[in-house]
Amino acid sequence: MTKPAQARNTCPHCGSYARVRYSKQVTPIYREGAIECQNADCGWRGKFSFEFTVTLTPSMTPNPDITLPVSAGVRATMLAQLLRESS
Question: What range(s) does the Zinc finger Ogr/Delta-type domain occupy (predicted)?
Fold first, then answer.
């Protein structure tokens, strides 16, 4: 069985693996935290922010409190489906 792909953070300076030290959920679509390079010769540490910005596939169980824009491609597909159904 194939292992699922995992996001791998890299140091912006040396390109080595950078490990997330901690993160906290600020809102349902926004997270921030600290990250550090694992290359002992580099030693860089920094902060990061992670935000969901657009919907690529609509949820089958949407949260009414979340409003994310729908991508242009999804919007076009949904509009085409509505037009077909109304014809």
Answer: 10-56
Co-location of 15 and 44 in the same domain = yes
Bridge partner list, 37: 18
Measured distance CA(63)–CA(70) in Å, rounded? 14
Per-residue pLDDT of 19-64, as tens digits, reads 999 999 999 999 999 999 999 999 999 999 999 999 998 899 999 9
* Residue 2, in any domain of the structure: no
User: Are residues 81 and 65 located together in one domain of the fold?
Assistant: yes
Cα atoms in the 13 Å half-sphere on the side-chain side of 45? 4
| pTM score | 0.72
